[in-house]
Amino acid sequence: MSKQPQGLSRRDVLKLAATATVSAGLAGAPLGVAAHDQQAAQAGANSWPFELPDLPYAEDALEPYIDARTMGIHHGKHHAGYTAKLNAALEGSEMVDMSIEDILADLDSVPAAIRIAVRNNGGGYANHSLFWQIMSPDGGGEPGGALADAVNSAFGSFGEFQTAFAAAAGGVFGSGWAWLVADAGALSISTTPNQDTPLMQGLTPILGIDVWEHAYYLHYQNRRADYIAAFFNVINWDKVGELYAAG
Amino acid sequence: MAFELPSLPYAEDALEPHIDARTMGIHHGKHHASYTANLNGAVGGTDLEGKSIEEILGDLSAVPEGIRTAVRNNGGGYANHNLFWQIMGPNGGGEPSGALADAINSAFGSFGEFQSAFSAAAATRFGSGWAWLVAEGGAVSVTSTPNQDTPLMDGKTPILGIDVWEHAYYLNYQNRRPDYIAAFFNVINWDKVAELYAAAG
Ligand SMILES: [Fe+2]
Ligand SMILES: [Fe+2]
């Protein structure tokens, strides 16, 4: 794989699956992506106007860990709001043909007048698009295969990874995210404020937890630690493994 | 001497329906209480014990680096919420009068224009933070800060503030932050704000 921001490759693969067009930047990208067709169809083309993806499960599917009301508002109001504001910011710009990963990986190239709006709302758009995918009603447990090896190699054991990830998520002050990111096959944990994303640093997020209070307040109020512990019961490790492989 | 969580100056349900009792109870009893405890945990046993919170926040560069972030976040959270409870009240709302009204008119043109500017600052603070009316040398202005940062860190005196962390409104308003901001104007204790303005000099 090239050293380009690697979420780009993944998303371009989605775009390929959806449109059957080949873009020049795709050389060498993995093409065994039949499983992505469904998401690609849901997500639409990855360029302006961006579309709010459907949730890949029912709003109550992650109960009791994430309640249906939170899911409904989080997706239907917050994510929808980021999507609409991102589209409004980009309308009429020269960036309307770019993928969200391309845009976020090079914010310096975004016109100054819309840079903050694109950073905040584009980040919110991309982060939540990932977030829904890496959770599942059949989630939980531990990763297998190459991802498990990479987790063990980086953290010593799954338990140590879990401790480090939970500490990172618990330590974000204010609004933000904690991430498991891949960089040339190696894994690490990072955090970002607000809707910033590791894509802005050229890293590929393969797992993320939203620790804005809107992600948990209706159900957990100030008990963020309980929400983080519950999140591990809904992680879709198959999907995270796919993203790791694609990165 | 340790910092103490102040009591709410009114009942938890006193600001209903604008701010619901459950939010007030958790906000004060959990969030503010934990900023207080974490602040005490950070400054305990250091030279900062005995300083006022305003002194500490007014010169964060003098705080030992090992505890600076903890003091900034939790000291800010401690001071900001102390102020927040005071500048609200069940008999609030309306408009200021006297010298504060003059200062607002002078800075913004009218109370309505101040209200628009303050609401916009509160609505557009992305993520967690606060919007403020600050006094400096008798003049007032609107500003906002991220997370628990406070205008005290810039040598300005906050005389009115609205908490726009989602915990301040999510149980009652969810994503509708503008509705919360509009409701806040019904509980502003302008007498207290005017006192703070006068004291700021
Ligand atoms: Fe979110
Ligand atoms: Fe607060």
Give structural notes.
Chain A has one domain (10-246): minor pseudopilin epsh fold (3-Layer(bab) Sandwich), CATH 3.55.40. Chain A is mostly helical. Chain A has ten helices and three strands; from the N terminus they run H-H-H-H-H-H-H-E-E-E-H-H-H. Chain B is built from eight helices and three strands; from the N terminus they run H-H-H-H-H-E-E-E-H-H-H. In chain B, strands 2-1-3 form a three-stranded antiparallel sheet. The two termini of chain B are 28 Å apart. The relative contact order of chain B is 0.16. Classes of the chains: A mainly alpha (247), B mainly alpha (201). At the A-B interface, helix 3 of A face helix 1 of B. One fe (ii) ion is lined by residues 27, 31, 81, 163, 165, 167-168 of chain B.
Describe the secondary structure blueprint for this structure.
The complex is a heterodimer of chains A (247) and B (201).
Chain A: H1 6-19, H2 37-43, H3 68-90, H4 100-105, H5 112-133, H6 145-155, H7 158-171, E1 176-183, E2 186-193, E3 204-210, H8 217-220, H9 224-231, H10 237-246
Antiparallel strand pairs in A: 1-2, 1-3
Chain B: H1 21-43, H2 53-58, H3 65-86, H4 98-108, H5 111-124, E1 129-136, E2 139-146, E3 157-163, H6 170-173, H7 177-184, H8 190-200
Antiparallel strand pairs in B: 1-2, 1-3
Helix pairs in contact in B: 1-3, 4-5
One fe (ii) ion (FE2) is lined by residues 74, 78, 128, 210, 212, 214-215 of chain A.
